[in-house]
Amino acid sequence: MTTSMQDDTDAPSLSDKRPLLPTLDPSLWGKRALVTGASRGIGQAIAVALAQAGVRVFGTATSEAGAQLISQTLRDAIDRAKAAFHPLAHVSNGGAFAGLYDALEQSSEQSLGLVLDVSQSQASEDLLEKLHSEGGIHILVNNAGITRDNLAMRMKADEWQQVIDTNLSACFRLSQSVMRFMMKQRWGRIINITSVVGETGNPGQANYAAAKAGLAGMSRALARELGSRQITVNCVAPGFIETDMTLALSEQQRSQLQQQIPLQRLGSPTDIAAAVLFLAGQSGAYVTGESLQVNGGMFMD
Ligand code: NAP
Predict the structure, then answer these.
(1) Cα gap 165→170, rounded to integer Å
(2) Is pTM beyond 0.90 here?
(3) CATH number of the domain at 26-294, out of 3.10.110.10, 3.40.50.300, 3.40.50.2020, 3.40.50.720?
(4) Mean pLDDT, consecutive 10-residue segments, the chain of 301 residues?
(5) How far is the CA of 147 from the centre of ligand 1 (A)?
């Protein structure tokens, strides 16, 4: 147990009011996670949730400014968790909350933002090599994604290719890079962020729907290949979530959408992070090859 935990005067202040997800899961403490596209939206919420659960998180952005923002966001998020759990850790006297608090202190020192364009295979390989030389990756969250919407009749070759490269091929490459380490550890989690659109299709998104449906198929194949080493491979398929990606929706489109969603709201990034946390931790240990639909009921399998 650290001395700072025992001293009430060291309690960090609790300023942010975002809800902390319930995360008392010792299987996550000290694990190392790579979350692609963690500078905004869903990826940011996933990185924050994992870090607040005691995971050492490496989040990626395509720019140096984005990477710095991730580092700062992770530090703030971990401070919030420490502030929330400090009183419990203090009274638990070496119990579970003290363990979480110690893990948070470790992740605070080691979690950070990194620059990566996932469509660049050499850069991805170099980054993974560096991360492996420093301790490997136990949890990979393939979250980075783009849209290049156009009706199929007008879709240009590069609009097709960019989406396939970023949303599908990059996920395979990163999965391939982490699986050797995970196999040696006999433990691993690969979590791919797909989309409801991969199930339903959507006009103007032939490229995006193909990439997301492909990612789900790839995940099932990898789940079969890697299961004997206790590596699970799953997808989380968001519905419509409040992020930069859905900012372009008009008020009319938004209200039409809400009418098709039984829960009558767009999702929040935290809704998706909660599903990722479930799959990453002990609760999801016997789930593999699955696509968890987190869409407010707008599509039911
Ligand atoms: P977002 O707000 O647009 O953020 C995208 C993230 O991906 C950013 O961090 C961005 O980094 C990163 N990124 C983009 N291109 C990249 C590249 N080539 N290499 C590395 N990182 C890259 O997206 P979001 O809405 O949070 O979506 C996250 C994931 O959820 C995506 O896979 C998306 O398809 C999926 N999804 C979203 C929704 C939704 O309604 N929002 C629904 C279903 C599925 P920079 O900041 O550096 O650009």
Answers:
(1) 6
(2) yes
(3) 3.40.50.720
(4) 37 54 90 98 97 97 98 96 84 78 93 98 97 97 98 98 98 97 98 98 97 98 98 98 88 91 95 98 98 97 82
(5) 9
